[in-house]
Specification:
The complex is a heterodimer of chains A (about 50) and B (about 475). Chain A is built from two helices and no strands. With about 50 residues, chain A is mainly α. With about 475 residues, chain B is α/β, with parallel strands linked by helices. Chain B has a domain at about 5-125 and about 285-405: FAD/NAD(P)-binding domain (3-Layer(bba) Sandwich). Chain B is about 25% helix and about 25% strand. Chain B contains ten helices and 24 strands. In chain B, the strands form seven sheets. In chain B, strands 1, 2, 5, 6, 7, 8, 20 and 21 form an eight-stranded mixed β-sheet that branches. A four-stranded parallel β-sheet of chain B has the order 14-11-10-18, with helices on one face. In chain B, helix 1 (about 10-25) links the parallel strand 1 and strand 2 (about 30-35). In chain B, helix 1 packs parallel to helix 9. Classes of the chains: A mainly alpha (about 50), B alpha/beta (about 475).
Chain lengths: ~50, ~475
């Protein structure tokens, strides 16, 4: 967990919840995101 | 028979050479002039810089690839361009000086019909006192620098394992730097490696950068859709820095780097110093210092090149304030306006102005990122210009091909830690690269194509791209199927 110091630099930004952090390393979810991201990139590439 | 000469064998120059060769018959000669014998996939240098990869994994020898492709390779640096020839040469030519061992220092004039300037930048460490791997800071700009940085990092990890607490600074070493993305990747990979080594609690890591805010990246930041909001990449970046326990100092122009201390001035005019045991600070870029001469030998460098040493192309270079900048200021064909057989691509072309807003502090010191034009846009420019030249050589009655950064998207995959199952990457896409607030008043870019997310998939993509682009650059079978 991030230690936040009130009124200091790291007090204000949003930080990910446990679920978000889990989803970032979940093999199932990330495999799906891998496909989605590749499609997004290919769509971008096809513009040129 | 036409002769195409390409200066530089980086992403832009090498891509141009391969595509031109693919499209032109053997009766046409293609010559690549580059001072280094090796091709380097620069985006993976950050992994060399933390010791996760070796230089051999991010480089290969150019000569065998060019031999197979019937491209002439001269390992040399370009010294001057003579676009009108001279008293003894009717044809335009480039003067070169060999760097090839055995021929080092020998000079030659190489005639051309068409010239592509893709020299990339000079790493201008001299712009800041004490900056650079030969002085007091480290770099990951070349594989050699990155290897040196990895060695020093390893020593520091050993010291921390023995109980020392060390301070790390990562960022930009001058107020006019570009490529914040590379430093951004390095700081997260550094943090990740310290975690892996079990010494993260022994390190204070600080980001020091010329960006006005975190997440600017020299492109004025991005507005993207996240969690039901349209939010700025600043929030995205600050969140990641906070999550990883990194401090940050932005709006900084580094004035001097000492062995264990860096001095800087801020946009508000205040000055500061930061102590460190390890500083990886990127240098500003300038042109490589090419000169140009007319037929009589008069210096015409300022006709071909902007003051920063980058080559003038079909951009609108009229000085204008930020609120009058237009996407149409950006070049489309990369053709030099005076010499129609000369083109400049990648970092070598002179941008009309920045993308991030120019700013000066009360002392008059400019502190703002200069525009990035590396990676994907460089490759696209190389290909498009090669196609234009092929059209010209084949006398096709076609307009020059266009690839304006104001009409081009980019995908940027920033590594945030290397590991097959526990790694992380920030995957960003944007369209267009140059924001257009007339066309997209709310966001400056098309929100459908401008996205960002963090996760393991980003690392997988970055790792897959490493192999894909090296495969492509080696011109192995079906290389052209790998997009730029």
């Amino acid at each position: 967990m991030v230690k936040r110091n009130p009124y200091e630099q790291n007090y204000y930004p949003p930080v990910p919840t446990k679920l978000t952090r889990w989803s970032r390393v979940s093999l199932l979810w990330q495999s799906f995101r891998f496909i989605v991201l590749n499609i997004k990139i290919l769509r971008m590439v096809r513009k040129h | 028979m036409a002769k195409l000469v390409i200066l530089g064998a980086g992403i832009a120059g090498h891509t141009a050479a391969l595509h031109a060769r693919r499209k032109l018959g053997r009766e046409h000669e293609i010559i690549v002039i580059a001072p280094n014998s090796k091709w380097n996939w620069i985006p993976s240098n950050i992994w060399v810089g933390v010791g996760w990869m070796k230089p051999e994994q991010v480089t290969f020898e150019l000569a065998p690839v060019y031999k197979k492709q019937h491209i002439t390779f001269k390992q040399a640096r370009a010294v001057s361009i003579h676009p009108q020839g001279d008293s003894s040469h009717a044809q335009p030519f480039v003067s070169i000086e060999y760097t090839l061992p055995g021929k080092a220092g020998q000079t030659e004039q190489v005639a051309y019909d068409y010239l592509i300037n893709a020299t990339g930048p000079k790493l201008n460490f001299a712009a800041t006192e004490g900056l650079g791997p030969e002085k007091n800071s480290l770099s990951v700009c070349t594989y050699g620098h990155a290897e040196q940085t990895a060695g020093i990092l390893k020593e520091h990890i050993e010291r921390m394992k023995k109980g020392e607490h060390l301070k790390f600074v990562v960022g930009t070493g001058h107020g006019m730097c570009t490529c914040q993305g590379a430093a951004f990747e390095y700081i997260f990979n550094l943090e990740f490696e310290l975690q892996k080594a079990g010494v993260r609690d022994k390190a204070t890591i600080t980001w020091l950068s010329n960006e006005v805010e975190l997440g600017d990246f020299g492109i004025g930041g991005m507005l993207l859709k996240r969690g039901g909001y349209i939010t700025h990449s600043r929030i995205f970046a600050e969140s990641l820095f906070t999550e990883r326990g990194l401090d940050w100092i932005t709006q900084a122009h580094v004035t001097k780097v000492e062995k264990n201390r860096t001095h800087y001035e801020l946009l508000n005019g205040e000055t500061g110093t930061i102590e460190h045991d390890f500083a990886m600070l990127l240098p500003p870029f300038s042109g490589v210092g090419l000169k140009a001469f007319d037929k009589e030998g008069t210096d015409i460098t300022s006709d071909l090149f902007a003051a920063n040493g980058f080559m003038k192309v079909d951009a609108d270079y009229t000085p204008k304030p930020y609120d009058q900048w237009k996407p149409s200021d950006w070049p489309k064909t990369y053709q030099n306006p005076l010499y129609k057989n000369i083109f400049a691509v990648g970092i070598a072309f002179a941008p009309p102005h920045g993308i991030s807003k120019p700013m000066k502090n009360p002392n008059g010191t400019p502190i703002n990122p200069t525009p990035p034009r590396t990676g994907m846009p460089s490759g696209v420019m190389g290909r498009i210009v090669a196609y234009s030249i092929v059209d010209l050589i084949k006398s096709r009655n076609k307009p020059l091909r266009e690839a304006s950064m104001a009409n081009m998207g980019a995908a940027c995959i920033a590594s945030a830690g290397a590991g097959l199952f526990n790694g992380s990457g920030v995957s960003m896409t944007m369209y267009p690269i140059i924001p257009d607030f007339d066309k997209y008043p709310e966001t400056g870019r098309d929100i459908k194509y401008t996205t960002g997310e963090i996760g393991l998939a980003g690392h997988w993509i970055k790792h897959a791209l490493h192999y894909a682009f090296i495969y492509k650059a080696k011109a192995l079978p079906l290389w052209m199927a790998v997009p730029e």
